[in-house]
Design brief:
alpha/beta, eight-stranded parallel β-barrel, globular, binds L-rhamnitol, binds zinc ion
């Protein structure tokens, strides 16, 4: 079996190969270690949440398939699982909570009544674990969302309910930001849409804009919380029309100084989200990414190191935008070990970032400026076979995390010791 010594030797060789292209592996790893991903709590229990009267996802546009045993059934189990996942991911990362994951103590607390105190135990736990929190309103899996419309509902009382919910969520986010002395990112995604041809799209989009204006009339300091809004192309049951489309939120965020959230699963499969990054950043200071993997009609498969993720992370580095773009994970798969899925996805994004940080950018830029398209393409091709895996494994070891392949046994051990007993 490969030992740490072999891995260090492989790293030294890799370091020299990159140095020959004027790339410092040490600098790349130092930069990588300062990047935090926001891990989505909802991968741990298939977007279930811990409300006293939990609802299914019917009508939400989301669908979770699979019946793999061992999902978290309580806050304590979810936290235990998260700890296990974080221990297998190099670096220090954040936690992305959804409003339905509050600590309600078995009581029914409707969404428009949730308060910071329902998230106090999360804040305490995050403080202990050295984690920073992000937050999301939960505008689905609720009787008031059954029609498929929330903030754009024609009935003012339904809109009011959800406006109140999102307002409470932003107050909770601000409390989290205060407690952790780091802004909490609040992301808003709503399922609103229609299965079939919709005649009055304009009316519904006007209603959504009015609801959003009411919500964001309350302002918080950016030191405590920041707002992002997430678009979608279509969902299950909203195949023909989605109120909060890309153009809608592009317009809304740019005209109101908010952050756009681009979910990689929320575009046409031939569209490149990577290409959108530089376009948005010309007009907006910051951007939120939901890194996901769309497969045909599903937008939430487990993230892997595919071309899309590589291109996306390369864009952040090439645009010099690592400090302006927040990366969160967003996928759920009930068909496999859920902790393993978290770790696969997080490690894939970090690997893509490392690949991007190891690009010989000055050389590539020079070729581009010189109009030397042959050398630019040839170099991009040849760097694909550089020993990047050795740099990654070294990074894992120096961060006290198992390198590739060895982490798999840790997931299996936890499955045997903990998950299989649930
Ligand atoms: C849904 C959006 C959204 C959700 C989470 C659970 O299509 O991607 O981000 O996945 O809010
Ligand atoms: Zn998303």
């Amino acid at each position: 079996m490969l030992g740490d010594k072999d891995r260090e030797r492989a790293y030294t060789e890799a370091r020299d190969r990159y140095a020959a292209l004027d790339v410092s592996t040490g600098e790349a790893l130092e930069r990588l270690s300062r990047i935090s991903l926001s891990l989505h709590c909802w991968q741990g229990d298939d977007v279930g949440g811990f409300e006293a009267h939990g609802q299914d996802l019917e009508g939400s546009g989301l669908q979770v398939t699979g019946q793999y045993p061992g999902k978290a059934r309580s806050l304590a189990e979810l936290r235990q699982d998260l700890n296990h996942a974080y221990a297998l991911i190099p670096g220090s990362h954040r936690l992305n909570l959804h409003a339905m994951y509050g600590d309600f103590g078995g009581n029914t607390v409707d969404r428009d009544r949730i308060e910071p105190r329902h998230f106090q135990s999360w804040m305490d736990w995050a403080g202990q674990e050295g984690l920073k929190l992000d937050f999301n309103a939960t505008c689905f899996a609720h009787p008031q969302a059954e029609s498929g419309l929330t903030l754009s509902h024609r009935d003012a009382s339904v809109r009011e309910f959800w406006i109140q919910h999102v307002k409470q969520c932003r107050a909770i986010s601000a409390a989290m930001g205060e407690a952790q002395s780091s802004p909490c990112l609040h992301n808003l995604w709503i399922p609103d849409g229609a299965k079939d041809i919709t005649v009055d799209r304009y009316a519904l989009r006007k209603l959504l804009k009015e609801s959003l204006d009411r919500i964001y009339a309350v302002t918080y300091s950016a030191a405590r919380m920041k707002d992002a809004l997430e678009s979608k192309l279509f969902g299950i049951g909203s195949e023909s029309f989605v109120v909060g489309s890309h153009e809608f939120y592009m317009g809304y965020t740019l005209s109101s100084g908010k952050m756009l959230c681009l979910d990689t699963g929320h575009f046409h499969p031939t569209e490149s989200v990577a290409d959108k990054v530089s376009a948005v950043l010309v007009f907006s200071d910051e951007l939120l990414l939901h890194v996901s993997r769309g497969v045909r009609w599903d937008s939430d498969h487990v993230v892997i190191l595919n071309d899309e993720v590589r291109d996306l992370m390369a864009e952040l580095v090439r645009a010099g935008a690592l400090d302006r773009v927040h990366s969160a994970l967003d996928f759920f798969d009930a068909g496999m070990n859920r902790i393993g899925a978290w770790v696969i996805g997080a490690r894939a994004v970090l690997k893509a970032l490392l690949l991007a940080l190891l690009e010989p950018l000055p050389r590539l830029r020079r070729h581009e400026e010189d109009g030397d398209h042959f050398q630019r393409l040839a170099l991009l091709e040849d760097i694909q076979t550089l020993p990047f895996g050795a740099v990654w494994d070294y990074h894992c070891l120096s961060q006290g995390v198992p390198p590739d392949q060895t982490w798999i046994a840790e997931v299996l051990r936890y499955e045997q010791d903990v998950l299989s007993r649930r």
